[in-house]
Amino acid sequence: MVKAVRKTRKAESITLQLKINMFDSVEEDPVKITPVIKLVVPEEDPLQDVLWSTADGDLLKHDPDQCELDLSSIEPQKFNKRLN
Fold first, then answer.
1. What gap in Å lies between CA 21 and CA 53, rounded to an integer?
2. What's the domain of life for this entry (predicted)?
3. What's the domain count of the chain?
4. Beta partners for residue 84, in sequence order
């Protein structure tokens, strides 16, 4: 529980209820005690994403009105050779 509170920064609680009943209907002295434990664990916020919609109802990962650049990765060794 402490880990969940630290991770989510949300409160949680433990409720302990003791139910006390007669053990049986014949004798007066024995009683039965039953614990009821209720645990409220904080939930993490759901993951979210931003998508762009089209008039046709499609969802796109990238903004269709923004140009995309044709970029590529440069390996560190190749980049260092160019500087020397």
1. 60
2. Bacteria
3. 1
4. none
